[in-house]
Structure formats: C-alpha cells, structure tokens
Amino acid sequence: MFAFWIDFCFLPFCHPSQPNYYKAMRTKKSPKVDLEKGRSLFFSIGLVLALGLVLAAFNYKTAVVAIPERGTVNWEPPEEIIIPVTRPEDKKPEIKPITIHEIVLNLEAGEQELDFSDYTDEIDQGVGIALNPILSERSPEPDEVAVVDFAEQMPQFPGGMSSLLSFISKSVRYPAQARELGTQGRVFVRFVVNTDGTIADAHVVRSVDSLLDAEALRVVRLMPRWKPGSQNGRPVRVNFTIPINFVLQ
Questions:
Q1: What does the alpha-carbon distance between residue 111 and residue 147 come to, in Å, rounded to a whole number?
Q2: In the chain, what are the domain boundaries?
Q3: CA–CA separation, 159 vs 148, rounded Å?
Q4: Nearest-angstrom CA–CA distance, 138 and 87
Q5: DSSP letters along 123-169, please?
C-alpha cells in the first residue's frame, strides 16, 4: 500500500527528463510476496519428494497372507459292479487230422517237374470255400458205406508214391492263361478212395484260382484205381487229400 501510494502521489509530478522518472516507474514488490526468492528451494523439495515416492512405489511389496493347510480328502469312485453273463457252451465237433500228401509242380523252360514230400496237416472241415459249381461237383456213390479219415491200412496208389509222382508229372498241364498272368499257389484236392479202389467225390477244399483248380481236379479224376484201405481186415472207404503246389520258376 505504501509503494502504491508513493507511485500515485509523485508520478504525476515527474517528467521523463527527470533522473528518477524511470526508477519511479518500476514495480515495487514486497519481500514477503516475492516467490522468486524460494523458487529453487521449493523445486528441490518437490524433486526429492517425487523421487522418494517413486522409490517407495518400486519397493512396495504386497503382504503375503499364509493360508493354513487343510487336510486332504482322498475320494475314489465306487467299483463298477460287473454282472457276468453266462452263455451256453457251443459244442464243436471234434476234427480229426487228415494225412495229406503234397505234390509240388515246378515249371521251368516248358518242362514239368514235380517234387514230392509227405507231411501231416490239419484242415478245418467246418470252413467251406465257395467254388465254381463245376469244381465242387460230387460223384454218385455206389453204396452207403461210411467214409473214414483213418484206416489201419491206408489206400495206396499203384506202385507207391513214386508212381503217383510220375503219373501227375505226365498228366498235368499248366494252364496257358494262368502262366501268362503269373498265377501260382497251392490247391487242396480231396477225394474218396472207394472199397474197389476207384476215385469218387473229388473236390477242391482250398482254392487258388479257377484255372489251377480245374487242372488239379482233372488230373485227380484221371488217376487209375488205388489199392483200397482196410479196417479190421475189411475194405473201407477212406478220405484222401492231396495239396498240389503250382509254382512258376
């Protein structure tokens, strides 16, 4: 107030030519309201506080609350109750092994060779194989004598197995179409040797190809009479199976 009163009272009487004119024009400030005096101090205090808050924020950690452990409960699902289902047992007919004589047909450079070996095998008689009606044709039987799979004296080809080998070697003809297609495999032919030695009921029990099946049946039906099998000194009809293996070399 005092500075304002001085300016108001004396400025009208001053002239720019007077030496104190510009000095009188300066703004008079009270030292109590001069903010420039403590500016640097306030800036330093604010900077220190800001840095302190930043450091406190980085070092602040959330308190970890420990939760007391509780006892664990082991739960197991109830056991599944399985009710057994009883089924009537299927009685399967007993299958007796069949003596099989294997004849291997090997062809090379137009020649026909047969290797013969004896072995015993078992064929599942309960499994049928769909064949051409011509191949599965049955010959009429001369009588109603039962056919057995084994006999005390088994049937024999005239002259033995070596003669049977020679007969098939001379009689078999490898089908030309099967040769061109490279078809080969083992054909199982089953037949009955009657009490008079004749061959009956020749049919394929395991097929490879219709051409090879037909040739195997043709050769078997051309065989001469065998020496019949006998049981207790009496001739009996006996089943006989021959696997013929057609191999191209």
A1: 38
A2: 2-54, 98-248
A3: 23
A4: 38
A5: --TT------TTTTPPPPPSS-PPEES--SB--B-TT-HHHHHHHHH
CATH code of 98-248, in short, is 3.30.2420.10
Tokens 């030496």 label which residue? 19
Could you tell me which residues are beta bridge partners of residue 244?
103, 187
Give per-residue pLDDT as tens, 41-96. Answer: 888 888 888 888 888 887 777 766 666 666 555 656 655 555 555 566 666 656 55
Q: Where are the alpha helices (DSSP H) in the chain?
A: 2-10, 21-25, 39-58, 161-171, 176-181, 210-221
Would you put residue 110 in left (φ > 0), alpha (ψ -120 to 50) or beta? left
Residue tagged 């450079």 (tokens): 109
Q: What is the per-residue pLDDT across 24-37, written as a single tens digit (0 to 9) for each?
A: 555 555 666 666 66
